[in-house]
Amino acid sequence: MIYLFNDPAQFADELAEGYAAAHRDKIRRVDGGVIRRHKAKPGQVVVIIGGGSGHYPAFGGFVGQGLAHGAALGNVFAAPSAQQICNVAHAVDAGGGILFCYANYAGDVLNFTQAQERLRARGIDVRSVVVTDDIASAPLHEHYKRRGIAGTLAVFKAAAVAADAGKPLDEAVRIATAVNDRVRSLGVAFFGCTLPGAAKPLFEVAPGIMEVGMGIHGEPGLDRIKAPSADELAEMLVGKLLAEIPVTVNNVSGARVGVILNGLGAVKYEELFVVYRKIEQLLTARGLTIVAPVVDEMITSFDMAGVSLTLFWLNDELEQSWLAAADTPAFHRGVIVYDNFAMNHDAEPKESRDNHLIKPGSAQSQGAATIVLAALKAALEAIEAQQDELGRLDAIAGDGDHGIGMQRGLTAAVEAVGTAIAAQAGAGAALIAAGDAWSDRAGGTSGMLWGVILRNLGNAVGDESKPDTAMIATGVATALQAVIDLGKAQLNDKTLVDVLHPFSIALMKSTTQGLSMAEAWTAAAEIAGQSAEATKNLIPKIGRARPHADKSIGNPDPGAVSMALIIDAVGKIIGKHCFFDARSQDLTE
After folding, report:
1. What is the pTM of this model?
2. Catalytic residue annotation
């Protein structure tokens, strides 16, 4: 249970503010995250990590000498936006290239990939290493689908050590990749976490039962078994991890391993030490040598009662990175010697935000922009009315934050459109501003995708004339294709595509039937609602819900439901404010 918070929507920002204030000697806050207080040397590689808030010390706690140069911090359990990531990147860029390291979750992959493309377009060499250490989340032959959990620490550290040693970007990527190939983790939980402001945990476990293979965002485990004793838990974790030894490890007996026993929030240090006692006995009995073990909270999930075990199979090169000194707010090892450059170059970091000067739209388009604002306000009201239900649906096979994320995104979109209208924006510029604000504020997968949808719709509508049915239908079709290209979801994968696709087809068909915009939208909205309900019969094939497909059957996809809610709310505004002028083929207020 989270007891201390103000407005849940501001929780992530307020914790980042307090965290930065508490550790002014090591880190500083920038727009989008935190960075090292002391700058990197000119010409060196810098390492940027990141993810959703709610996992402290991941990810901001790993920023400092010997570890990451910066961390992009998303909202609670939501990936940072591409804009946040770019802001952090520009703040720490030293001219030698940038290495992104992050855990393998759909929202993180989408947003870091988009940030990478933006930075490359500006001439910055950026690479990515995605951490996939969780053996429970996919079989070995599909290791690229695995989630990243506590093993991220080993990958982040090795990447940063290589960067600070002056190694080129190619070498830093090689070393980080080698660590990811040699790290394996498995987690368990006895009870789920509760998000700030939520009335109940994301998932519950019956007394005496344990979830095996749960995710750090509160995703339920893959199996439920009788809760073991401390020694029995150690035996299970060690046994499952030793059943999958990396192919690059030639001999188990005599091998050297780094060990991370991680508490997920509510299991405290005394309990961890009891479990570690047995882990050491078991590993030593197999002929393994443990090197610099970490028994601590390294990646948490608010108040989740659980632990995870990570084995990092070392070689001579990687052992040096594991043992190297580090000094961050949450991780200390050895002694860091701060050189004069780092100590004496503490000026304000450079930041970059993609600001777009709004040019006034035509009078007709400005009038349409006011309808855009009314439509977004109606959508916000619809989402807020169903926010708890959207969270419930999301928690069935995901992390339960969908309602919160949609509310945050729509709130930002409404504010952005209000500002754009004050600057005499047309409908297209208003939609683009809404999309950028939504993506930046909400983060995560849905935030990024809704940003893409609104931006494509805005580009199709433009700022010169009144939007007509054909313009909007074309914009929706373009947005659909962009969502498919970026998110990789196809029809029947149980995502928002299962609503957007039939909605787009219906809207495009209406352009040939002479229907008014209100008539066309209403008909397509009915299909969207039916399509959202039909997702309850689908099996998720992508995203966080994929490993829990059986739990999802019988319940509609939350992203599909929220899209249908928004389409319906927008349709009511269109019906109220617009009619079809058959002579001009335009929307008129």
Report:
1. 0.88
2. 217
